[in-house]
Recover the amino acids of this structure.
């Protein structure tokens, strides 16, 4: 289905920054590197000098200007908003890149967020974690506020419980209530239910039932409250004679996240859920370990490009590389040779001198000496700066400790990460339709993993008490992968919050210097094998420092291999949702095109497209139900039509390789500001109060996807199609078909029996509905409809008479 012609990997690196004439000693300079076309490429600020990096707004004149930005290697995010005078896009830019783009004529406007916002998020997260840790030291104390039953609405009876935990500020605190059926009856004979955590203005108040719980047994005498933090308390249940309340239809609990979480926290949470609910869960260890949150230790020496070189340890930083040091000394005498001395992990380079005692060693000579010395080369490799000839003289430098420059605490493992998926279902044998929900392919999208986690918590916490949830879990096979990109996400959380890619460094020496370390990695949503960069599709890059680097080959990365392994290992997966941020989009295939002639991957057929659209109404209504957020019609549809081309994305791989109904969410819809009469973007990492709301509403959307999948599984009804004459003229009749549900129509015009190999109803055009079919003579039309679940309707027939010309 896809082209196998692979174009030459011509470099698309373009100059945005000029080479500074001097580098500060010990600094990590931002310089440009020569490219195949003689131009140079922008570099990211180092993680220790990133305060200038910001998420910026750019107004492009047209789509061609957006494509030009992509070709320049600008770190564009998944955001595209038509304006009266152009197209608004967003990009992660350093101050130098901003200046360079403006000099090139691009309309770079104000920032959306920068490092100050990042630091505020980090501080809030630390405070939340500290509160959790403090609460975890001892069993929590529970205080019963109310425990009552009452009668209302024609004698119906209800329970109303309220209990407070001194650890309740932690959203992971879960309280269950168990009640008896009267005096001297077993403690849980009346039932058990999970209570909902009630907060007001961001403050924890107590746990309760969201609405009174219908009582189906005798009135209870005693209730026992049990907390997941270890606390327990009993209380008498009394009758309340207050104002009657209407009986609720459901008793549903939600809101299980209270701070942004790193991949280690998220993984521990899903492992804990599997242990707590062993009958309906399973942890799946994905087979390919990631590269790990780790880097080689490095240091850079020099004050100008020609005299600059850098060294990189053979060992990972945490495995001894960080203990290596290099010094450059003046031997203090004339006519001394360049020598390298190694003692343990201490490397001393004694620079050469001439007859006057002046230093004569160039950067290239020092690099050669280090690489030639057996003891030194066992510890490290040396390189001139970004392919420079290194003819400049090297200056002395005191002992410099090499560092991997990673800032995460020791609790974050530096070893390859074991990615884990949480499987939820009563029947986990492949007999039920599978749904795959996955989040955080892009590291900087902090809201997405807590969205997946919230969905898992809702499914498990509501299973026993909510019939609708139970129906979903019993009728589906649900796979949740909260973090696709654990290494990059750790790096985003602790080192460089704008990190998009994973941490695997495929850069050659020319771009592997320390100042480039925030630009290393592969875009995991450009590393799949359908409509890829290597097939000639637009929206990815061959540059290892580009934000959309496709990797050295299709599915080169273990994270991408794990995604592919999951859908191949579990062929019952029929639906998938890839959750990203931000902008508020709901998208599906096709997701890529070739720029020349805008050659789009094959569009879905008429019936499947209608299924996508019909499902979107239910799914987006669920998103809207939380706080009223509406995903715009203009941001709903195939990715290529509502956003851009994303070569090698995973949703395309799912649909074109496996026929999986694959969607993409972009959480974080724009918020309307009536004071300014404009829609404001929220960014990747909004303050947690906003991020929390996004997670809640899009978790509701993920639940709705499960409901769509369950309806698909239960669909046994045959679709019908009606022939509709649209117009008649002299010598012609135009007609089309209208279906009872999302279905494909197969038809014949010669009176023969229609099959799924017959002519197939197509589109009139994008968003234009069904095509019109024209006949010019009396015609016997026969047709049948086939829905997305494979139900086949009965063959129908109609004779069309054509007016004489």
């Amino acid at each position: 289905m896809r082209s196998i012609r692979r174009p030459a990997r011509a470099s698309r690196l373009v100059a945005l920054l000029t080479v500074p004439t001097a580098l500060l000693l010990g600094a990590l300079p931002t310089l440009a590197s020569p490219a195949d076309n003689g131009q140079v490429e922008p570099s990211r600020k180092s993680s220790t000098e990133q305060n200038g990096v910001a998420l910026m707004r750019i107004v492009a004149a047209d789509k061609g200007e957006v494509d030009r930005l992509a070709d320049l290697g600008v770190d564009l995010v998944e955001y595209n908003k038509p304006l009266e005078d152009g197209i608004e896009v967003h990009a992660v830019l350093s101050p130098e890149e901003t200046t360079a783009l403006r000099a090139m004529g691009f309309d770079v406007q104000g920032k959306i967020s920068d490092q100050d916002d990042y630091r505020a998020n980090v501080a809030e997260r630390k405070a939340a974690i500290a509160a959790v840790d403090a609460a975890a030291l001892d069993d929590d104390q529970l205080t019963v506020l109310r425990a009552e039953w009452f009668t209302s609405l024609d004698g119906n009876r209800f329970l109303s419980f309220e209990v407070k935990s001194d650890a309740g500020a932690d959203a992971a605190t879960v309280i269950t209530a168990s009640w008896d059926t009267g005096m001297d009856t077993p403690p849980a004979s009346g039932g058990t239910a999970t209570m909902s955590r009630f907060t007001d203005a961001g403050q924890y108040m107590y746990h309760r039932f969201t609405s009174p719980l219908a009582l189906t047994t005798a009135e209870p005498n005693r209730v026992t409250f049990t907390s997941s933090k270890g606390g327990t308390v009993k209380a008498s249940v009394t009758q309340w004679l207050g104002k009657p309340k209407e009986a609720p239809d459901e008793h549903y609990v939600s809101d299980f996240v209270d701070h942004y979480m790193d991949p280690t926290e998220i993984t521990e949470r899903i492992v804990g859920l599997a242990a707590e609910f062993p009958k309906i869960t399973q942890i799946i260890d994905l087979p390919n370990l990631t590269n790990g949150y780790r880097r080689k230790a490095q240091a850079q020496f020099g004050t100008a490009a020609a005299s600059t070189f850098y060294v990189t340890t053979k060992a990972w930083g945490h495995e001894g590389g960080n203990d290596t040091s290099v010094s450059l000394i003046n031997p203090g005498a004339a006519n001394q040779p360049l020598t390298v001395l190694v003692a343990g992990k201490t490397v001393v380079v004694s620079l050469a001198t001439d007859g006057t005692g002046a230093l004569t060693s160039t950067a290239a000579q020092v690099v050669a000496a280090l690489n030639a010395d057996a003891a030194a080369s066992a510890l490290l490799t040396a390189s001139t700066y970004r392919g420079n000839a290194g003819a400049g003289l090297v200056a002395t430098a005191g002992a410099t400790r090499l560092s991997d420059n990673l800032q995460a605490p020791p609790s974050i493992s530096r070893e390859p990460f074991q990615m884990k998926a949480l499987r939820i279902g009563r029947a986990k044998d492949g007999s039920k339709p599978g749904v795959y929900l996955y989040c955080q392919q892009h590291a900087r999208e902090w809201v997405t993993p807590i969205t997946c986690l919230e969905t898992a918590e809702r499914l498990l916490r509501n299973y026993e008490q909510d019939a609708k949830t139970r129906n979903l879990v019993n009728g589906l096979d649900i796979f949740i992968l909260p973090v696709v990109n654990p290494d990059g996400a750790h790096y985003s959380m602790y080192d460089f919050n704008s990190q998009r890619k994973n941490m695997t460094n495929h850069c050659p020496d020319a771009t592997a210097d320390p100042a480039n370390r925030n630009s290393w990695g592969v875009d995991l949503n450009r590393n799949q094998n359908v409509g890829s960069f290597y097939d000639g599709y637009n929206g990815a890059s061959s540059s290892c420092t580009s934000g959309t680097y496709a990797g050295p080959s299709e599915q080169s990365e273990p994270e991408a291999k794990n995604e592919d392994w999951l859908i191949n290992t579990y062929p019952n997966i029929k639906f998938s949702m890839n959750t990203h941020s931000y902008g508020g989009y709901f998208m599906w295939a096709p997701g890529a095109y070739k720029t020349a002639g805008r050659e789009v991957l094959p569009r879905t057929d008429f019936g499947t497209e209608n299924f996508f659209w019909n499902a979107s109404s239910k799914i987006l209504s669920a998103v809207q139900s939380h706080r009223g957020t509406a995903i715009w019609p203009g941001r709903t549809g195939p990715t290529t039509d509502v956003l851009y081309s994303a070569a090698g994305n995973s949703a395309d791989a799912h649909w074109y390789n496996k026929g999986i109904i694959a969607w993409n969410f972009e959480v974080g819809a724009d918020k309307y500001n009536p004071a300014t009469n404009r829609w404001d973007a929220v960014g990747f990492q909004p303050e947690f109060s906003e991020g929390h709301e996004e997670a809640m509403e899009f978790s509701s959307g993920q639940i709705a996807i499960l409901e769509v999948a369950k309806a698909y599984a239960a669909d046994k009804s045959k679709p019908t199609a009606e022939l509709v004459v649209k117009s008649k003229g002299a010598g012609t009749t135009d007609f089309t078909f209208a279906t009872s549900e999302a279905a494909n129509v197969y038809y014949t015009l010669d009176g023969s029996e229609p099959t799924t190999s017959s002519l197939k109803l197509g589109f009139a055009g994008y968003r234009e509905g069904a095509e019109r079919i024209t006949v010019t003579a009396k015609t016997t039309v026969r047709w049948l409809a086939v829905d997305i679940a494979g139900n086949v309707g009965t063959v129908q027939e109609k004779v069309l008479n054509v007016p004489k010309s």
Observations:
- The longest strand covers residues 142-152.
- The domain at 283-290+412-495+553-593+600-713 is CATH 3.40.630.10 (Aminopeptidase).
- Confidence is low (pLDDT under 50) at residues 1-49, 242-249.
- The chain is about 20% helix and 30% strand.
